[in-house]
Amino acid sequence: MKKLLFIPTMLLILFSMTIQAQGNFVLNPNGDKDQAVVRAYINTISSKNAAQLGQTHAAKYVEFGPRWDSPGTKDDMIRNIKSIWDMTSEVRYDRTRMISVNVSGDEIPEYNGNWVFLWSVFIGKSKDSGKEIYLDIHQTFKIENGLITLSVVYFNELDSRMQQGVWDGD
Questions:
Q1: pLDDT in tens, 62-92
Q2: DSSP 8-state secondary structure symbol assigned to residue 110
């Protein structure tokens, strides 16, 4: 039932955004290729495949989030993922949904291009506590020439720290 409601809701949101964006924001008809790049990245994280880590990202890749004051590079992304692997015995994504759009004619040139929007639950089992950490995430990826060139991730960092037992509310 939830799947039946999710797709029409997302389409309604996207169509309303298209109207608000005055026609420069449309579904990407070739989005399957872009989503395959993001799926490969997710599979690399879930399988802890160090040899593949970074293969889906452009050399000049930039990432933002969850804090806006911390842009990162491809090397930073690789270091961050490896630190997640060091802290977790298992990593997986659950209830993953993606949609691909194309932005054109925007006054900010960096916004133009193909984007994949990802919604998922990231699950990692802490090596220290044995507890599973569940994070609702939303991540946007800009795809150029079959590589991820930019991403922005949103998740509740405080919730993550609380689930890990790093912050107790005091």
A1: 998 876 667 899 999 999 899 889 988 889 9
A2: G
Q: Which helix (H) or strand (E) holds 12?
A: helix 2-20
Place of tokens 């692997």: 85
Q: What is the dihedral of CA 28, 91, 6, 31, to 10 degrees?
A: 10
| Cβ atoms within 10 Å, residue 28 | 19
Record the tokens describing residue 159, joined without a space.
């919730």
Rounded to whole angstroms, the Cα distance separating 76 from 109 reads 25
Q: CA nearest 157: which of 46, 39, 69? A: 69
Which of 55, 119, 124 is closest to 84 using CA atoms? 124
pTM for this prediction: 0.80
Distance in angstroms between the alpha carbons of the first and the last residue of the chain: 40
| Span 7-16, pLDDT tens digits | 566 555 555 5
Residue 97 DSSP code: E
